Every structure is written in C-alpha cells, then in structure tokens.
Automatic annotation (TrEMBL):
Keyword Transferase: no
Name assigned to this protein: Glucosamine-6-phosphate deaminase
Reactions catalysed: alpha-D-glucosamine 6-phosphate + H2O = beta-D-fructose 6-phosphate + NH4(+)
Family statement: Belongs to the glucosamine/galactosamine-6-phosphate isomerase family. NagB subfamily.
Domain Glucosamine/galactosamine-6-phosphate isomerase stretches: 31-226
Gene3D superfamilies documented for this protein: 3.40.50.1360
Lineage top rank: taxon: Bacteria
This protein's pathway: Amino-sugar metabolism; N-acetylneuraminate degradation; D-fructose 6-phosphate from N-acetylneuraminate: step 5/5
MF-aspect GO terms: glucosamine-6-phosphate deaminase activity; identical protein binding
InterPro entries named in the record: Glc/Gal-6P_isomerase, Glucosamine6P_isomerase, NagB/RpiA_transferase-like
Active site residues according to the UniProt entry: D67, N136, H138, E143
First-level EC class: hydrolase
Length: 253
C-alpha cells in the first residue's frame, strides 16, 4: 500500500484525479471502476476540469460503478445512476454506451449480479478501481461480515450505513434497505486500486483498512492483500494512523 496524506479534501481529489488521468492518458481504452458518495466528488470535478482545459479524452473509456440502491430507477435523483450523470458523466466526453452501473430495478438480483460480472470480464476486467470507504470500513456496499469471495450481489445495508447516507435523503426511513454491489472479489481483481477518504469520521475506518487485522468485520482491510493500492487521505482521515505508517507515507501540502 502507498499512503498519500494531503492537507485538504480538494488536494485529496487532485491526487486521485492525477492517478485516474494518468491511467486514461496512457491507456485511452481503460476500464475504470467508479464510486459514488461525497468523497470522490472533488476528484470528479478535477477530472472534468482536466477534460475541459487540456482535452483529456474519455471517448474510449469504459466505466463500471460499484453499486446501486435496489428499487431506484436511473432517473431518480437519489439513484447512483443520476449521481454519476450529474457529478461526472455529463461533464466529459464519455460515450453513454460505455457506462455501466448495476441495475437496481432488475427482477432477479442473482441474474443481474452474474450479468454485471460477465460484462466486466468481457471488457477485460477493471484497470483502475476508485473506492470510498464507509465509517464501518465498507467498500462498495460490502458491509462488515462480508464474504471475501463474493462477486456482484444483493446486500442488506447496515444501520450505520443507513444513518450515514440519510443526509442525502429527507429522513433515514427513506434510505433504501438493500443495494446491489460489486463484491470484494470483483474489487480485488482490479489491476490498480485507489482508496479515498476525508474527514475525522473516516479515521477509524482508514486505520482498520491500513493497519488493522485482515478480517471480514472490516471489509476494506482485505486491500492489504492487493498488489497495488494507493490510499489517498486528508490529515483528518489519517489522524489515527501510527507514526510508523505516517513515516513511510507521502505528504502533499
Ligand atoms: O463518500 P461517502 O459519502 O462518505 O460514502 C462512503 C461510501 O459509501 C458508499 O456510498 C456506498 O457504496 C460508497 O459509494 C462510498 O464510498
């Protein structure tokens, strides 16, 4: 794992965007795995700016998102389809036919999971996967006690996740209870991974991901076994990392 500590949320996004942009520049037909949530927004803004100012070309890029709420249609403003459109896709020159998210409206979620995995495989697998992290150390919507061998599947959201995501809804009761998410195995098969986190409320989860035991109770801890992960965090999210880890990290001011 490489740890990059930045002094602001914007710089976290900048560091992440540089890695994504480098990937797309060197391999124009890259397959990107993408995340939603508030964390990657500054990265998407930066990538959109790089597209606009220097013409970073997304026309050959394919994207697969991590997850979608079950029962959310793509035109629902709370859906992750909608989020991606508003925060990223409409600002770049990606082709709509190269954009994939799990279908939260599918009748058979087992078949939908299999379909999604086949699509990823048909595109040659994910070159670079972007991840946020939940306060309970989830990645995608893989909640604690996850099965490390799981591929894309239906998940029941933890109460902690429902509470955390209720800020995007009128109330916690409106947050869907189920989602369809890439599994840990899907994520671990990506060639490169970047994990982003900002804010004090992510410090415990970052600690577990970087130096806790590798355990299904902290799903992100499995990333310690991945061959190429960059963890990009602001000072607040890095605040519980021990001096030994901070000593080998890169700090960007
Ligand atoms: O970035 P946020 O809003 O804190 O969300 C944390 C994580 O939870 C999710 O929303 C659930 O998958 C992820 O997309 C995100 O990485």
């Amino acid at each position: 794992m490489r740890i990059i500590i930045t002094d602001s949320y914007e710089k976290m996004g900048l560091e992440a965007a540089n890695i994504v942009a480098g990937q797309v520049y060197l391999k124009p037909d890259s397959v990107l795995g993408l995340a939603t949530g508030s964390t990657p927004v500054s990265m998407y803004q930066r990538l959109a700016a790089v597209h606009k100012t220097v013409g970073l070309d997304f026309s050959e890029v394919t994207t697969f998102n991590l997850d979608e709420y079950i029962g959310m249609s793509p035109d629902n403003p709370q859906s992750y389809h909608y989020f991606m459109q508003e925060n990223f896709f409409k600002h770049i020159n990606i082709r709509p036919e190269n954009v994939y998210l799990p279908n939260g409206m599918a009748e058979d979620m087992i078949a939908e999971g299999e379909r999604y995995e086949k699509l990823i495989a048909a595109k040659g697998g994910i070159d670079l996967q972007v991840l946020g992290i939940g306060q309970n150390a989830h990645i995608g919507f893989n909640e604690p006690d996850v099965k490390f061998a799981a591929t894309t599947h239906k998940v029941e959201l933890d109460e902690e996740t429902i509470q955390a995501n209720s800020r995007f809804f009128a109330s916690a009761s409106e947050v869907p209870r189920y989602a369809i998410s890439m599994g840990i195995k899907t994520i671990m098969m990506a060639e490169h991974v970047i994990l982003l986190a900002n804010g004090k409320n992510k410090a415990k989860a970052v600690y577990k991901a970087v130096c806790g035991d590798v355990t299904p109770e902290a799903p992100a801890s499995i990333l310690q076994l991945h061959r190429d992960v960059a963890v990009i965090v602001d000072e607040a999210a890095a605040s519980l990392l021990p001096a030994s880890i901070r000593g080998v990290s890169v700090t960007r001011k």
